[in-house]
Amino acid sequence: MLTKHSPMLAIGISMMLxxxxxxxxxxxxxxxxxxxxxxVQGTVMGDERTSLEAAADGAGNGANATPTAPGTAxxxxxxxxxxxxxxxxxxxxxxxxxRTFLRDPWYWPEIWHVNPxxxxxxLIYPGDILHLVYVEGANGPQPRIVLExxxxxxxxxxxxxxxxxxxxxxxxxxxxxxxxxKPTLLSDDQIGSAGYLLDSKxxxxxxxxxxxxxxxxxxAASPGMRYTVIHIGDAMRDPDDNSVLGYNGIYxxxxxxxxxGDPTSLVMxxxxxxxxxxxxxxxxxxxxxxxxxxxxPRNVIDGRIIAVADGVNTIGQYQVVAINRGSRDGLxxxxxxxxxxxxxxxPDNAKKGPLNSSHKMFxxxxxxxxxxNGTFMVFKTYDRLxxxxxxxxxxxxxxxxxxxxx
Length: 406
Hints:
mainly beta, Thrombin, subunit H, 3 domains, 6-stranded antiparallel β-barrel, 6 helices, flat
């Protein structure tokens, strides 16, 4: 067992009391870890597993699995076999790290300690060590996660000479970047603010790779900037009132600005299918901040999945979906929602005995309860629509499945 020492980290974050998300503690330590001489102690998880692998396998030594004494249970339930400490690795995400320590990862802000003595305390880097400690509270010992910068810790004789890696993101950056650079779901806001394809050099009927195109509405475009051409497809409708929330976007190609102005000149560098006059021309850069923390929504949410990127039928982990709730409903990036599959409507024949066809026709219909089949996290909100990732898929998830508070 390796023991690390670092200054006691100051508490700097308030507990968030979120209605609608209830966590029933499953376990707590036999006693809080003592912190003499302002030191934090814990077991360093020195293996090569990422946080995702550790969460799936059950990390740690199980030292915190002792049943809780009456009246001393922490309000936040820890994950089974949560480690005493964890070394952050390249490829980790904040969601997976939270899942390593917590049964309900969206409670991460409630146990995260901010140390004002550490530069950018909210940022977590590969090599940093996260310690699980306990502090006395009104209801007994409460779990907290404190950070020890990896630059001050030597777990081997090697010296850290390479530059620090980028901080970890909350969700997989590559997935969001691929979606935002070639969007397949478009809100009305995105479409309204996008530029459009005006014409092509020599007025080609079928615009393809290598052709020069002219676009308007690109604003301060400058030579070298890259844009994506999107054809507008079928409407995405709100199942509540059938109003149009957005449209399916069909990627047709990419272009690079060769001359600024109005119109702007671009050369097509990639062509997936024919581009036509009126297609939308959108920046290829990712305009989504990914430094948010997982959290429950502040309002009661009851909505539906209305579309999935790439038009697949069965939705799995880390797929982008659109829901019919947005900022006007109180949603914000980082909010976590549960996904529910609607219960079937079945006839209640149990009390009728042997039935003929006429009896079956008049049997009472009963709706079975909705069953939770996944977890969803918002990363981009508009007024009436939000994009997010399916973080966990316990069963088949489909368009029109319900989303609600976890």
